[in-house]
Specification:
Acetylornithine aminotransferase, 399 residues, 7-stranded mixed β-sheet, aminotransferase, alpha/beta, transferase, 2 domains, pyridoxal phosphate, 4-stranded mixed β-sheet, cytoplasm
């Protein structure tokens, strides 16, 4: 039987077709407006059609799109200097996606030990429930069988331990260990937070055993938790960090950040990207930082996040048969449902609100960082109506 679409059947898409966006709103082809608390899976950090981003992209598009990394790209130098000025990092490599940023991070860690005369040290300790991308290496790093199955032998060099279990991490360290890779907040894994103490203990173990600490802040970074990067809440600094999603505000852009020492092995010819760091991406990335680093922006994220947390806590108390737990930090929030999360998500969409599914029967709320308190309350009102509908339906079913 002939396929109904020439596209790969790798997505279970919702039957929605959007024509345009305005801030936190998406407008479907039929004119229906949806409150977008999915934000392209935490990508649209400044919402849709943000005027500063639009102007930056248009201005660059009229000058130069692509030259490759055979030449200097001034926008790369500018964005890299700004990123290193506000983070732990000394060096930056630009990519097109989060998975590519993680690939670069893994290669950077392995090359570090190789350059120091220890090529046997290439193993990376990762955590159960993690998601680091869809490449052959990053699915192995994540370790989830549903992503690995059918793609041949798992790429070697990755060892998973339980998330949050520092004793298991210490037991896993051996003479072949190169690094520890962790998401400060697991997104796909169900909005699970690494505690401040756990992050500090990981940093201490890396220092003790000569390992590199790699952070995956692809989803939780760039202001999503109310600080520029989530690890800042724990007061530690990584050696390497992968960034993407929000840094491009909707334009494909990722980056691998590293200290001078960690990046020392990445010399000419060891890594590259044809499109990575192209002028269009650099213009948008710089524009995103213009907004996110402006005075008061992250403070407003924290203020709006408080509105969400208080409202979600109230919903949990009022609908204990629908909502089991509220998770997350800042504007990276999770609702662990007591009913099938897929059913809850469909009911939420009936209320013209968009969210994102995750592991452990969790729905992610990832609103744009520009969301106002009023828009947060509107989203909470729609969630309340959805919870009421689910409650009524489950009550009827029980009867």
């Amino acid at each position: 039987m002939a396929a109904t679409t020439p596209l790969y059947d790798t997505y279970l898409r919702a039957p929605l077709r959007f024509e345009r966006g305005e801030g936190v709103w998406l407008i479907a082809e039929d004119g229906t407006r949806y409150l977008d608390f999915a934000a392209g899976v935490a990508v649209n950090s400044l919402g849709h059609a943000h005027p500063h981003l639009v102007e930056a992209l248009k201005a660059q598009a009229e000058k130069l799109w692509h030259v490759s990394n055979l030449y200097d790209v001034p926008g790369q130098e500018s964005l890299a200097r700004r990123l290193t000025a506000v983070t732990f990092a000394d060096r930056v490599f630009f990519t097109n996606s989060g998975a590519e940023a993680l690939e670069c991070a893994i290669k950077t860690a392995r090359r570090y030990h190789f350059a120091k005369g220890h090529p046997e040290r290439f193993h990376v300790i990762t955590f159960e429930g993690a998601f680091h991308g869809r490449t052959i290496a990053t699915i192995a790093a994540g370790g989830q069988q549903k992503y690995i199955e059918g793609f041949g032998p798992k790429a070697p060099g990755f060892y998973q331990v339980p998330f949050g279990d520092i004793a298991a991490v210490k037991t896993a360290i051996n003479d072949e260990t190169a690094a520890i890779l962790v998401e400060p907040i697991q997104g796909e894994g169900g909005i699970r937070l690494a505690s401040k103490e756990f992050m500090q203990e990981l940093r201490a173990l890396c220092d003790e055993f000569g390992l590199l600490l790699i952070l995956d802040e692809v989803q939780c970074g760039v202001g999503r938790t109310g600080k520029l990067f989530a690890h800042e809440w724990s007061g530690i600094k990584p050696d390497i960090m992968a960034v993407a999603k929000g840094i491009g505000g909707g334009f494909p852009l990722g980056a691998c950040l590293a200290t001078e020492a960690a990046a020392a092995g990445m010399v000419a010819g060891t890594h590259g990207s044809t499109y990575g760091g192209n002028p269009l991406a650099m213009a948008v990335g710089n524009a995103v930082l213009d907004v996110v680093l402006a005075d008061g922006f992250l403070e407003n994220v924290r203020d709006v996040a408080l509105v969400f947390r208080q409202g979600l806590a109230s919903l949990k108390d009022r609908f204990p048969d629908v909502i089991e737990e509220i998770r997350g930090d800042g504007l990276m929030l999770g609702i662990k449902a007591k009913v099938p999360s897929a059913d809850f998500l469909k009911t939420i969409r009936v209320e013209k609100l968009l969210a994102v599914p995750a592991g452990e029967n969790v729905l992610r709320l990832l609103p744009p960082l520009i969301t106002t308190a009023a828009e947060a309350r509107e989203g909470l009102a729609r969630l309340e109506r959805a919870a009421e509908a689910v409650h009524a339906k489950s009550g009827t079913a029980a009867a």
